[in-house]
Structures are given as C-alpha cells and as structure tokens.
Amino acid sequence: MIRYLIRGSRILYIYKILPKWHKIINILTCYRENIVLGKNWLIYGVLKISNKGIIKIGDNFRANSGQEYNPIGGDDTIRLVCGVNASLVIGNNVSLSNSTIVCHNEITIEDNVGIGGNCKIWDTNFHSLDAKIRFTAFDKNGNVSTKKILIKSNAFIGSSVIILKGVTIGENSIVGAGSVVTKSIPDNQIWAGNPAKYIKNITPTAYGFQE
Ligand SMILES: CC(C)(COP(=O)(O)OP(=O)(O)OC[C@H]1O[C@@H](n2cnc3c(N)ncnc32)[C@H](O)[C@@H]1OP(=O)(O)O)[C@@H](O)C(=O)NCCC(=O)NCCS
User: Ligand 1: distance of its center to the CA of 167 in Å?
Assistant: First the structure.
C-alpha cells in the first residue's frame, strides 16, 4: 500500500506538478533564445537551447527532456544548438526524446518525424582535420567542414542513432537503434548498423507504410 502511495506521489510530482514549472522555464528559454515555437506543444522536462542563428519549431511538438521522461534509457536532456548564420527548422508533429541537435549549417526535419532517445544529429565536424589548425583560434568557420542534413517526412530515427553531416533520411524511412548514419538513405527503407547499411524496403499496407 505504502509502495503504491510513494509511486503515485512520484508520478503526480513528475507528470503533474513539475511540468507546470518546466512550462514556464521552456517559455522563457524560447523567448530568450528567440525560438519560433508552434502551437499545441507538449514538452516534459526542460529544453537546453543555445541559438545564434534561426530555430523554428512547428505545431504539435512533443519532447521528453530528462531521464524521468524517457523510460528507454536516454539519460540526457534535449539540447538544440544553432550557430551563427545556421538554420534549424523542425516541422509539425515532430517528437524528440533526450537528443542533441547541433546545427552549424542547415538542418531540416520535416513533418511527422520521430526521433528516439539519446540521438545525436550533427551537421559539422566541430574541428578541423588539419592538426596545425585544430584546437587553435582558426579551428572554426571556413576551416571546419559542415554539410546540410535533411530528415524527410514520417522518418523514424531509433534510439542512440548518430546522424552525421551531409545526410538525407528518406520519407517514411527507419534508422535502427545504435546506428551511425554517414550516407543518405532513400525513401521507404530501413537502414541500420555502423556505418548504417540498407536492411530492407518498407512496403505499404492497407494502413499506410508499414513492414
Ligand atoms: C531497425 C528495426 C526497426 C528493424 O526492425 P525489424 O524489421 O523487426 O528487424 P529484424 O529484427 O527483423 O532485423 C532485420 C535485420 O536487420 C538487422 N538489424 C536490425 N536492427 C539493427 C540495428 N539496430 N543495428 C544493426 N543491425 C540491425 C538484424 O540483425 C537483421 O539482420 P539479418 O537479416 O542479417 O538477420 C529494429 O531492429 C530497431 O532498431 N528497433 C529499435 C527502434 C528504436 O530504437 N525504438 C525506440 C525509439 S524511441
């Protein structure tokens, strides 16, 4: 009985009381970082955002940020980092869980995309490949390679996936858990592994695109 009371009060605290406080923090963060956030969003936990470019998030954004809000093992929070002159555009009905997106060029996530826990999406190498420049004052801008990332509508990114610069994930396509995506994935395919490779096609059913 006491165990159920403790569990119940924990759930009440995490899902009913804390979210009210987190909502205020998230609204202030979006205001501070100049984020365009669409209607009807539901964010559990607080977003960590650093924006020196443009970040736009569409309607019905769903997010779990913090270990309490993701039972599948993503212990991190959501971090959105957008550099100078960079643009991160997230469409409508996108869900994101304890993942990090670092945008130094351009990242576009289209509508209805699901991104699982603990993913990393980076459109930059962060550092120069030249050891003489790396970690010096020249280790930025033109000396660091960046390429655009596009994640097309209805794509599903499994847990703990890393998506590297220059990659397009096709419409309806799925990336398996723990994959490192280095090459673009066509529409309607499942890819997985490190580096991610073609696994199989997704064929349409009466209900839509399912295996
Ligand atoms: C990619 C995935 C969706 C495919 O599911 P499935 O169609 O049932 O796949 P199967 O288990 O039949 O595996 C098919 C093949 O892909 C391989 N494979 C599947 N997932 C893989 C992965 N993550 N990494 C590497 N290979 C993988 C399997 O070994 C198998 O290879 P084989 O044909 O040589 O035997 C699934 O494996 C997966 O990663 N699920 C986790 C999704 C996730 O992270 N959800 C949480 C988000 S919040």
Answer: 20
Domain over 2-210 is classified CATH 2.160.10.10: yes
Residues 6+ apart with CB under 8 A from 5: none
Alpha-carbon distance of 25 to 115, in angstroms, equals 23
Q: Is 17 left (phi over 0), alpha (psi -120 to 50) or beta?
A: alpha
Q: Which atom of ligand 1 is nearest to the CA of 159?
A: 44
Q: Does 72 contact ligand 1 (Cβ within 6 A)?
A: yes
Q: How much is the pTM?
A: 0.92
Ligand 1 contacts CB of residue 176 (under 6 A): yes
- Radius of gyration from C-alpha coordinates of the chain: 18
Per-residue tens of pLDDT for the chain, all 211 residues: 888 888 888 787 777 788 888 999 999 999 999 999 999 999 999 999 999 999 999 999 999 998 888 877 767 899 999 999 999 999 999 999 999 999 999 999 999 999 999 999 999 999 999 999 999 998 987 889 999 999 999 999 999 999 999 999 999 999 999 999 999 999 999 999 999 999 999 987 777 755 5
Domain ranges for the chain, please list them.
2-210
> Of 23, 48, 127, 134, which residue is the catalytic one?
127
Backbone angles phi, psi at 124, to 5 degrees: -140, 155
Ligand 1 pocket, residue 174 CB under 6 Å: yes
